[in-house]
Design goal:
Helices cover 76% and strands 0% of the residues. The protein is mostly helical.
Length: 258
């Protein structure tokens, strides 16, 4: 039973993201490099947030429950703000790198478009975020112990897997919208990314009432997915052509930079 829980939750959490990686990124070395770099930037942001939070906890009154709860909220907000700050820093770095690649290239177009960079870096952020969100939980799923034996929810692992999947996909959508907002100086779009990121992170405080956190998170993911789809140049027409395999150029694997 524990093996079924472990592999089932892993498939739910990382299945869509791994599929996207295999079909759209794995065969392109340049995209793989940018994805790994994006994951590294997210990791650095987490390291800085963890360091600040650890120091804050050490100098605070550990016997005060209200103060510790306030520090937890502070840590979440700080982590989100640092993640988005590093997303912006990564955008600026990619712009410089793309200009350098264009200068070295003999072609007139960039080796990889901003839209592709946004997608790849967002997925890199999502992969690393998902790994830190669910790896320890998956390790606990193999035992010893039984979830819910003291009256807690029986759906702890399943809920965590679905939340991780949503966070990974949201990072991909946020990356597309954020990069487009920076590229076109649409700062309201950038602010919307930061605000929804804060909202989704704050919803986790509703746990173990998982319905109160999962349902709003998936609603946010749905609307951000639609926004990202149209931001990336999608439309109902080319979606229909893609699904019916009549427009192969719409697929990212065959998409030419513009």
């Amino acid at each position: 039973m524990t093996a079924a829980v472990f592999f089932g939750c892993t498939f739910i959490a990382f299945g869509p993201a791994v599929s996207l990686f295999l079909f759209t990124i794995a065969r392109e070395p340049l995209r793989v490099i940018f994805l790994i770099a994006g994951a590294f930037f997210w990791l650095v942001s987490l390291l800085l947030a963890s360091l600040v939070w650890f120091i804050s906890v050490q100098i605070s009154n550990k016997e005060s429950a209200s103060q510790q709860k306030g520090l937890l909220i502070f840590g979440v907000v700080l982590s989100v703000l640092l993640q988005e700050t590093f997303r912006f820093a990564y955008y600026k770095l990619l712009k410089k790198a793309n200009e350098g690649l264009l200068a070295l290239s003999q072609e007139e177009t960039m080796p990889i478009s901003i839209r592709q960079l946004a997608y790849v870096s967002g997925l890199g952020f999502g992969f690393m975020s998902g790994a830190f969100s669910v790896v320890n939980i998956l390790a606990d799923s193999v035992g010893p112990g039984t979830v819910g034996i003291h009256g807690d929810s029986q759906h702890y692992f399943l809920s965590s897997a679905f939340m991780t999947m949503a966070i990974i996909l949201l990072h991909m959508f946020w990356g597309i919208i954020f990069f487009d907002g920076c590229e076109k100086q649409r700062w309201l779009a950038v602010a919307a990314v930061v605000a929804t990121h804060l909202l989704v992170s704050s919803l986790t405080f509703q746990n173990p009432q998982y319905v109160s956190s999962l349902v709003p998170t998936y609603i946010v993911m749905f609307f951000m997915g639609i926004w990202a789809f149209y931001t990336a140049g999608g439309s109902l027409r080319n979606l229909k052509l893609c699904l019916t395999c009549k427009d192969k150029d719409f697929l990212l694997a065959n998409h030419r930079p513009r």
